[in-house]
Design a protein that fits this description.
The protein is mainly alpha-helical and 378 residues long. The protein has two domains: 224 residues; 141 residues, Homeodomain-like (Arc Repressor Mutant, subunit A, Orthogonal Bundle). It is built from 18 helices and no strands. Helix 2 crosses helix 3, helix 7 packs antiparallel against helix 9 and helix 9 packs antiparallel against helix 10. The chain starts with 9 loop residues before the first helix and ends with a helix.
Length: 378
């Protein structure tokens, strides 16, 4: 088979090929990482990236052969179109759930995909035109797919937003476990939707190129954060049930009957405060709610309940307020003038300068460096 290369944009083909190569490499990396951290979530993320890879490959072949729709590869690409946003949603679900059970509403998301497979299978094996290439049905199909992607995108964003709040009830350091990177990664379906609209309703190659470039940059962004990701719930299996209770308790405060007498409240408060002063667990950079609960000989969900209701703050604020107070002492200590801000952060229990600066300013109203200058001047 020969091709008329005068009709082929070589630069565009090279660009698509590079994008395909990166996505295949990223697929392999994500699958490898799934064996180390966030196992189930990264496997679904692998499916998502591989689905994108197949789309890119078909786009490349489409530059060489306008009849690529008759090939098996195109059929494979067509039947996984709905699986791409679904797999990203399932990755999000698996990242944020300590006990990763799908609900009935989650399973319902598979229905459009199953219907899509059946319709396209009948077309493929019956040697008929795909619904996505039928002039009568194609616009309606595109609208349905776009609406489905938007629905999944919103649903996934809400799940991550809830996670960003609930994770502060478990950890004093949420850097790389609050899934900000994954929230930004949800731009991927947005780009796919944008591209789909462009191809369907616009002939502007400039807009198409812009969408492709954004997609290309998004692959690099995705790869960077996939490699650097941390285990979201690094706990033993026996602890995960308690962790799940902590998260659910935040949104369902009446599910547990934990009434305490005024005397019991004061005794528990004094016990916790004494432990914080004597043991200084906040100086451990990796302190978590389960670790503190273990030291106090309490159950995680009870400690979380107590801190939320009787100290009126979440675990993140509870620990970091102690750290900020410790850092204040260090900043004005003449024997520790040699420490820079990173050194002060580490000494007071923080494990990053960014988190230290942000938390310190939020609590005191000034940055650590300005606080040191003010105290020195006074």
């Amino acid at each position: 088979m020969s091709y008329d290369f005068s009709d082929i944009d070589i630069v565009f083909v090279i660009f698509l090929s590079t994008k395909f190569g990166i996505s295949i490499l990223l697929t392999a990396i994500t699958f490898t990482i799934s064996k180390k951290v966030n196992n189930i979530a990264n496997k679904w993320l692998t499916v998502f990236i591989f689905g994108l890879s197949l789309v890119f490959l078909v786009d490349i072949l489409g530059e060489f052969n306008s009849n690529v729709s008759h090939y098996l590869l195109f059929f494979c690409k067509e039947i996984i179109v709905f699986l791409i946003p679904i797999s990203l949603y399932l990755a999000v679900h698996s990242f944020v759930k300590p006990i990763k059970n799908l609900t009935r509403n989650d399973v319902i998301l598979f229905i459009p995909w199953i219907v899509d497979i059946l319709l396209k299978s009948f077309s493929f094996f019956g040697k008929k035109v795909f619904i996505t290439e039928n002039e009568l049905y194609q616009p309606w199909y595109d609208i349905l797919f776009i609406a489905f992607c938007i629905f999944v995108l919103i649903k996934s964003s809400l799940i991550i937003s809830r996670h960003q709040k609930s994770i502060k009830y478990l950890s004093a350091d949420v850097y790389r476990i609050d899934l900000k990177w994954l929230l930004y990664l949800l731009l991927a379906p947005t780009i796919l939707i944008f591209t789909e609209i462009i191809f369907s309703f616009s002939s502007s190659y400039t807009l198409i190129s812009i969408a492709d470039i954004i997609e290309f940059l998004l692959l690099f962004y995705m790869g960077y954060h996939i490699v650097l990701q941390k285990e979201i719930f690094p706990y033993e299996k026996t602890q995960l049930e308690n962790i799940d209770k902590v998260i659910k308790h935040k949104y369902q405060p009446n599910t547990e009957n934990l009434r305490l007498s005024p005397l019991k409240i004061e005794e528990t408060k004094s016990f916790i405060l004494q432990y914080m002063i004597e043991k200084q667990p906040y100086l451990e950079s990796d302190i978590t709610l389960p670790k503190l609960a273990f030291g106090l000989r309490m159950k995680s969900h009870f400690l979380s309940y107590f801190i939320n209701n009787y100290f009126h703050k979440n675990f993140y604020s509870f620990i970091n307020e102690y750290r900020v107070e410790e850092s204040k002492k260090i900043l004005i200590d003449p024997n520790k003038k040699h420490l820079n801000m990173l050194g002060v952060a580490f000494e007071s229990g923080f494990n990053s300068k960014t988190t230290f600066n942000t938390t310190f300013k939020k609590i005191t109203g000034v940055s650590p460096s300005n606080y040191r200058k003010q105290q020195t001047t006074n």
